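#struct-pred
JK: can someone run the complex with dioxothiomolybdenum(VI) ion? inputs below
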Amino acid sequence: MKFEKPASSNPIDKMSIVGKPVNRIDGALKTSGLAPYAFEQHDVVGNQAYGYIVAAPIAKGTITAYHLETAKAAPGVLAIVTAENAGTIEVGDFNTAKLLGGPKIEHYHQAVAVVVADTFEQARHAAGLVRIDYNQDQGKFDLASEKGAAKVSDEDEGTAVGDFDGAFAQAAVTLDATYTTPDQSHAMMEPHASLAAWEGDKLTVWTSNQMIAWAHGDIAKTLGLDKENVRVVSPYIGGGFGGKLFVRSDAILAAIGARAAGRPVKLALPRPVIFNNGTHRPATIQRIRIGTEKSGKITAIAHESWNGNLEDGSLETAVQQTRLLYAGENRMTMMKLAHLDLPEGNAMRAPGEAPGLMALEIAIDEIAEKAGIDPVEFRILNDTQVDPENPDRPFSQRPFVECMRKGAERFGWNDRPRTPASRREGRHLIGMGVAAAFRNNLLLKSGARVKLDSKGVVTVETDMTDIGTGSYTIIAQTAAEMLGVPLDQVDVRLGDSRFPVSAGSGGQFGANCSTSGVYAACMKLREAVIRKVGFNSDDVVFENGVVRSGSRSIPLGEAAGEGLSEEDAIEWGDLDETYQQSTFGSHFVEVAVDAFTGETRIRRMLAVCSAGRILNPKTARSQVIGAMTMGVGGALTEELAVDTNRGFFVNHDLAGYEVPVHADIPRQEVIFLDDVDPVSSPMKAKGIGELGLCGVAAAVANAIYNATGVRVRDYPVTLDKLI
Ligand code: MOS
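RT: done, structure tokens with the ligand placed:
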């Protein structure tokens, strides 16, 4: 089904199940430990052995010799695989560095061998006995010193509208400030883990991955296999945040280890290896210049960003939101990429906007103060209803002003201390901060198969994943609504490359796109049912487990006969070119900063979100409060510390890389604007999972400024920067 024009109405609009805050249908399985995550796939195949990674202790260089004899002789060892005996190891479409290195080493903790043994302990012990000689090369590891050598990349040439330099030179109020965001790690709860099993030349990998079709293609490509001979299964995923968008070394090491050992092999990356072996969000340096009239109206805005990556690595597109968020006639954006030999930089939750808004939304706070305007009013004053770089292109929907006003009222913004460092409660300085939330709404083709059996049970199959977000539940709600059956008559099967290819879980596109794919398949199934029973399609209703037309009504199971199965995918027309589709919000934060130690505590947070129709307010709220919590980490604690001599992230575990938890934030509130976006899809929904993160860190930093009078432009805002 091609989605080409704004939807008027459709069966979803009934909203008898969609839009309700129903509990997760997989919740009990997860909380009781019965949902098998990749490393817990004990029963799918017998005789499982264990793999353990050997990771390079240098960032750049060449392997000169392997010494494997001692490790091979260790108890329980079944096989050791390195680049010398692994067979084909290509670079996948979605990776930059090889997932098994050698002889060339491209980054610290790149995998160089896998040891397979009968037990996990034996594999780990033997991995410690592997000796490898290296020739070490000098790498480049410091973004600040490589900034001058950075270049505009083919990915993005930058944008320019009007005459920025001229307008900035004449502006009544100006800001020219530079901000930095550090390298960050996804730090998901479940480590990267896989179980691989061969049957002849057919490989099955049970793994933890957000994007089944990408994983399927890249496992095949990396190992030089036909895609038909590879199956990927990923029914449950303990978080990804972008770290599991792409195949990582666990899947490849398990596969080559299993082939060498002649047994299924299970392998999880140890936490201390994940931070350097996996991907991370690259650090940025961002220069922002804003010029306004006396009134506070923006006349000139420029955003430049620098980040580093491996050769052939990608940009962190931190200027993305600045192209769309505020009005202003004269504007420019530019990104430059430096070569660094650090581990691979890649997508982390809201790539682009998350670090981009960390900088932009402090800058807006600063220029508003310079112009003598309240920061909420400043944002409202500079709202735009069209893409400011292409004024012929309206937003499909943009209630940004409403998000700001509603948030300010609900949060009690009027009570904000007017001057920084002016409110004290005991030993604490109290402050409030605000920031805009913005994230684009992306559309990816998404397919599904829907079956109806003779008992009236509906089964949905799609390779969509549930990374903790609630995909199982909203897909069940969608199918139940479309076919008029209760939720418990719907069986949802996800995360298998044998199912139709979906959008997958990423870029906050999963919910809207995957349910739209299920919608398309359900439409086809409805037509099949109508044909079968011979009703006139004009007045047919699917309701309470029956298909009805006028006074005739037939139970769905009966209508299905031997059973029906239909498959379809949602594809997108060019509405995306006619309209700019984005999601909007506001974040409000109150902090207490210890006047003696400089330690910041979050007292309360509020997010107001506009993201089209909310398919399930309970799972959507969970997405947003989780994202807000993550944003507090970005503001206060998260930073991969780079060893600029040896080229690795020093704090490579959850003791050294700190992320906040629920107990760190006593009060979080989420408000969804009651809106639908008919342009976005037949579901009229948009993404919410990343919007909740975008802007949070700046709202915290702005609150800290309001509390203390100290403006910190380098994240994270740790206590040493306040004292
Ligand atoms: Mo998100 S970084 O696209 O998982």
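RT: quick notes.
Residues 210, 240-242, 245, 347-349, 351, 506-507 surround dioxothiomolybdenum(VI) ion (CB under 6 Å).
The mean pLDDT is 97.
JK: thanks, will look after standup
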